[in-house]
Amino acid sequence: MDQLRKLTSQLLDLTIDAETFYIETVKKKTDYEVDFYGKVKPFADQVQPLAKEWYPLAKAFLINHPTKGLHVNQLGEQSRI
């Protein structure tokens, strides 16, 4: 459970970082061009291993602690991560 919390926190922090970058850079600069290898790929390379580790932990947690607000199917498919 501690590892799930840690990974969830890390993924949320990365999501906030991405949103902040989008709002402060992409939306404000009309001439912004996506830097795939300089920005997008490094971000994805950082998120993907965390997501791969997070998914089975989150799935197991939801199976053992079902909630009305979130179902296992809403996590997506691990093959897409």
Q: What keyword list fits this structure?
A:
elongated, mainly alpha, single chain, 81 residues
Question: Quick summary of this structure?
Answer:
The chain has 81 residues and is mainly α. It has helices at residues 2-26, 36-64.
Task: Explain this structure.
- The chain is an all-alpha fold and 81 residues long.
- It has one domain.
- 67% of the residues lie in helices and 0% in strands.
- The protein has 2 helices and no strands.
- 1% of the residues are buried.
Number of helices: 2
Provide the β-strand percentage band: under 5%
What share of residues is helical?
55-70%
H/E element string?
Answer: HH
State the secondary-structure class: mainly alpha
* Average of pLDDT: 93
Note the main sheet.
none
What's the Cα radius of gyration?
15 Å
Q: Any idea what the shape is? A: elongated
Report the span from N to C terminus.
21 Å
Low-confidence stretches: none
Question: How many separate domains make up the residues?
Answer: 1
Q: How many strand elements?
A: 0
Topology:
Layout (H helix, E strand, L loop, with lengths): L1 H25 L9 H29 L17
